[in-house]
Structures are given as C-alpha cells and as structure tokens.
Amino acid sequence: MNVEQEVNIIKERNKKVELDKAWETCWTRKIIIAILTYIVIVIFFYFAGLSKPFVNSIVPALAFVLSTFTLPFFKKMWLRNK
Asked: Is residue 2 part of a domain?
C-alpha cells in the first residue's frame, strides 16, 4: 500500500469519527432519546397501574435532557484531571 492510499484511508476514518461525534452531541439525538424514554416510561407506568402515566412520564424524560447539559461540564473536569 502506498502513502497516498494510507492517507486516503485515514481521511475516510477521520470523516466517520467526526460524523459519529457530531451525532453524539447533536440535539436531534437527544430529542429522539427523550421521546423514546418518555414512551417506554408511559408504557411502564400504564401497565404498573400508576396514575396519570402520560403526565408523570414527563419528569424522567426531562431529567435525561437536563443531564445532557451537565455532562459536557463534567467531561471537561475529568479531562483536566487526566
């Protein structure tokens, strides 16, 4: 394999890594996970016989979204101490 081919392979890999990172930090992903979390918890609350499953399931879904705000802060702290 020549150097040009190796560089192209590395560039393709870097492009994939950048797209994966963009997906991990994008709002679309967070909203999809929050919606799926809400749906799963509604189903659980419904079958568990808890009152107001549609309203009470909002709290865990919002907790997930709020937790995503704090993670970058803690990641920076963790990286500083590494």
From this structure: no
